[in-house]
């Protein structure tokens, strides 16, 4: 995931040659070549999984990170209104006649949507009200 999310940065493309003393000769960095091959493989997998509409949106992106960032911008709304709506849904959710599995799945889906909308999990956990037992 490091290539896609940008945590694995590309190494320098060229290195200064240690054999040349008078000119600033550069040689291709083998680490960059390895990084580039891996990134292009990931890029091809991502592009192969996109619909035609989404593919048209990412034309011009040359790295897997660029494509992923653009897709994230297009499809992961990070608005405060969306976060507030999801928090409300989570606070109002009741088990009622749902099975325990279905109830927990609903909670998981809301928490996943909050995470995708940019809400830190630590903030979500700290906002949970303690249960009252009467």
From TrEMBL:
A matching Pfam family: Retrotran_gag_2
Identification of the protein by name: Retrovirus-related Pol polyprotein from transposon TNT 1-94
Native organism: Nelumbo nucifera
């Amino acid at each position: 995931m490091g290539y896609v999310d940008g945590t694995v940065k590309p190494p320098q493309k060229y290195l200064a040659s240690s054999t040349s003393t008078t000119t600033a000769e550069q040689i291709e960095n083998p680490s960059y070549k390895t990084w580039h091959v891996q990134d292009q493989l990931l890029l091809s997998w991502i592009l192969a999984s996109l619909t035609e509409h989404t593919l048209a949106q990412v034309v011009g992106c040359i790295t897997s990170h660029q494509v992923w960032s653009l897709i994230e911008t297009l499809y992961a709304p990070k608005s405060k209104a969306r976060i507030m709506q999801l928090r409300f849904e989570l606070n109002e959710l009741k088990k009622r006649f749902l099975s325990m599995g279905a109830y927990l799945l609903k909670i998981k889906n809301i928490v996943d949507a909050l995470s995708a909308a940019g809400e830190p999990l630590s903030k979500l956990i700290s906002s949970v009200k303690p249960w009252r037992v009467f």
